[in-house]
What does this fold into?
Amino acid sequence: MNCIEFRREKLADPRRLSAEAVAHQSDCAACRGFAAEINENEARLAAAFAVPVPEGLAERIVLRRKAGTRFSPRLGMLAASVVLTFAFGILQWKDAGSQDYARLAIEHVMHEPESFTSARLADPELFRRVMHTFGGEMQASLGKVRFMKLCPVPEGTGWHIVFETEQGQLATLILIPGKRMQAQSEQATVGGWNALARPGGQGYYAVITDSPDSLGQVDALVRQRVRWRG
It folds into this structure.
C-alpha cells in the first residue's frame, strides 16, 4: 500500500483501517500524522455537530457558497462543518497528486461501485449548476443524470457524476479542480474500464466507460455539448 491508497482509505472510513493500511501507518511517519489529524478533525466535528444531515447537503452548500447565497444561522453551522471537512481534504491531498490523470479517474470509479446502482441527486438543474460552477457551460443535455456526489480525490475534492446518454450508454464524468493538464488528452485502461482525461474548466475532467467504443462516443458527446471556460 502506498500513501495515496492509505489516505484514500482513511478518508473513506476514518474509524476502520484494513490490515494493510495499519501496517503502512506503522511504517510511514507522514501518514501517521495525517491519520492523527483526521482523527482529531472527526472528533471535533462529532462533538460540535451531532445533528442529522440531509443527503446531498454538502453538495448543495458548496454550490450555494460559490453562488453567494445567504444561509440561516443553523444552516451556516452545518455549512461550516461540511466546508471544514472538504477543505481539510484539499489541504491534505494537494501535494499527493499524480500526472496519471486518466488512471486515477478509473481508480476512483472502481472504489465507488455503488454509483452505478444508486440514485443520488439526480437533478438536471443541479447538474447544470455543478457544471457551471466548475467552468462548463451546457449547450445541450448529456442525457439522464443518475448519480452525483462530491468526493475526496487525490487532488482535493471533485465531482463524481454518472449519466445515461440518449443511446442508453452508461458513463461516468469526473470533475477535478485545481490541476492543469499540459497535454490535450490522456487515456488509460484498467480492469476493463476505459478513461479519457482532458483539460477543462477549473482543472480537468475525465470520462469513464466500460468499452473503448463507448468511450469515444461519450467523449465526443461531452466535447460537443459542453463549452469549457478557462
